[in-house]
Amino acid sequence: MISKDNLFAISLFPYLGFLWFISRVPQMPRLALYGFYGTLLFVGITIPAGIYAKITYGKSLANLDWLHGGAEVFLTLANILIVLGFHQAVKQLREKD
């Protein structure tokens, strides 16, 4: 059986492929694209934060609210960029009509 850590690591490859493809689509809203890249930044921050939580406190990241919340801020910001980017794109399309 595959461990959750290995599954997480393997899942990065399809996401990198997704980023590669959407970054080449001219219709892709730039702000939303930055949000999708921000999700990758969230992953990049969460991994060291999880290691720090385990080494320093002997706990998983999910059990340290202040550290977990700090990492989750990056996911929240990424999601906001995605929503604003697509909202802006829809608004521009409606204004064309």
Outline:
Helices cover 81% and strands 0% of the residues. With 97 residues, it is an all-alpha fold.
Q: How many strand units?
A: 0
Q: Which consecutive residue ranges, at least 5 long each, have pLDDT under 50?
A: none
Q: What shape does the CA trace take?
A: elongated
Proportion in helices: over 70%
Mean pLDDT: 93
Q: Which structural category fits the helices and strands?
A: mainly alpha
Spell the H/E element sequence: HHH
How far is it from the N-terminal to the C-terminal residue, by CA? Answer: 53 Å
Strand content: under 5%
Largest sheet descriptor? none
Helix count from the secondary structure assignment: 3
**Integer-rounded radius of gyration:** 17 Å
Protein name: DUF3593 domain-containing protein
Keywords: Membrane, Transmembrane, Transmembrane helix
Transmembrane segments: 6-22, 34-53, 73-90
Organism: Richelia intracellularis HH01
Structure characteristics:
97 residues; mainly alpha; 3 helices; 81% helix; elongated
Describe this structure in words.
Helix content is 81%, strand content 0%. With 97 residues, the protein is mainly alpha-helical. Helix 2 (30-57) runs antiparallel to helix 3 (65-96). It is elongated. The N and C termini lie far apart (53 Å). The mean pLDDT is 93.
